[in-house]
Amino acid sequence: MHRRNLSRTGLLIVLVALVVSADYARGWAAVSFISSGLAHLANRTQPVSLESALLETESKAAPEFAAGIWINSRPLTLKNLRGHVVLVEFWTFGCYNCRNTLPTVKSWHARYRDKGLTVVGVHSPELDNERDIANVRSEVASLEIHFPVLTDNDFATWKRYGVEAWPTLFILDKSGRVRWRHVGEGAYDDAEQIIQQLLTEDEQSRDKAKPVRIETAEMKEKIIKNDEEWRRQLSPDEYYVLRQSGTEPAFTGAYWANHEKGVYYCAACGLALFSSDAKYDSGTGWPSFFAPVSETNVITETDNSLGMARTEVKCRRCGSHLGHVFDDGPRPSGLRYCMNSVSLKFEKKP
User: Fold this and answer.
1) CATH 3.30.565.10 fits 227-348, yes or no
2) Measured between alpha carbons, how far is 144 from 80 in angstroms, rounded to an integer?
3) Peptide bond before residue 75 is cis, with ω within 30 degrees of 0
4) CB 3.0 to 4.6 Å from 119: which of 109, 135, 137, 268, for a disulfide?
5) 226-242 pLDDT, tens per residue?
6) Rounded to 10 degrees, what is the CA torsion of 178, 179, 182, 187?
7) CA distance from start to end of the chain
8) CA quadruple 188, 190, 191, 195: dihedral positive or negative?
9) What contacts 136, CB < 8 A, 6 or more positions away?
């Protein structure tokens, strides 16, 4: 997180002091919330979990964009964007935290723009060279940003939204209400789940302005069974892969060539693991994904079983072996989650 009017060294000292004094062991969840000010969380004496923050806050209408120069788009208004889910990111091209967040924001734009998501980058400068519109245009082109960018040199939009640091992200529902806010890097899986849910939210649920609930492994109890219980529950092939870390032969599983839309769940405990939106043809003969539905739903461990170091992927809820992850995948993650079909159960979604 890059806060305005603080040096980066000073910010680091402040953040460390806050973490120690407030005992925010849960990290960025303390500043990730729906329709709530920073003071709402800062005044608390106990750490705030992401789940409780989501459930206790209410939605309110987002402020309209202030005047500015638009790049990659004609001038947009929230009124004209009604019916779209809108992600608003406050950023500046010299901010290293913004650059770390950018690949994920770009991936959301690419994957969900045809499904009703509009990403708007509000460029609120920190340094003098970031105020030069020619420099902003050059950086937008160099960074391959294709979503709309609004220049905010006078910080008018920044002030309307009550922003205090770069990057800050807001997610607005189809009625123009703020449903989620996050300051700093991270919480990408939570944000994507909210985007997905708001894209499918109907008029009735929007009118009620219900907060979005994120379901992760942390919200589910761990499943612990002894070896005999797993043997009784699973087929021999499932037991070999899921509980003995086996590998099914390439091009033999049920899902390596599956192209239907849906969600892949753990075959042992039913936890959601991967979405068809992240699935791609790796040519390896195993179902491959560039990201899980939530990083909290999987765990990774070093595997030296073949005399080489590999990264094993397991279900966080039940500890079952799923496959391995490699760093030769496609953008935006650059990862290839190479899974065994037998470790997954697919549920088709419309």
Assistant:
1) no
2) 25
3) no
4) 109
5) 999 999 999 999 999 99
6) -150
7) 38
8) positive
9) 71, 93, 123, 125, 130, 149, 151
Which residue spans of the chain are classified as CATH 3.40.30.10?
Answer: 2-208
Q: Which residues contact 139 (CB under 8 A, 6 or more apart)?
A: 93
Active-site residues, by number, are 338
pTM: 0.51
**Phi (first) and psi of residue 53, to 5 degrees:** -65, -40
List where CATH 2.170.150.20 sits in the chain: 227-348
H-type helices in 125-216, by residue range?
A: 133-142, 156-160, 188-199, 203-208
The first and second tokens of residue 323, run together, are 């496959």
How far apart are alpha carbons 37 and 281 in whole angstroms? 43
Q: Which residues pair with 169 in a beta bridge?
A: 89, 182
The overall average pLDDT reported for the chain is 82
Structure confidence at residue 10 (pLDDT): 45
**Domain 2-208 is of which CATH architecture?**
3-Layer(aba) Sandwich (3.40)
At 278-313, the pLDDT tens digits run 999 999 999 999 999 888 889 999 988 888 889 999
Mean pLDDT within 11-34: 37
- For tokens 């753990």, the residue is 266
pLDDT digit string (tens) for 175-234?
999 999 999 888 898 899 999 999 988 644 444 444 445 455 554 678 899 999 999 999
The residues with which 289 forms a beta bridge, in sequence order, are 279, 337
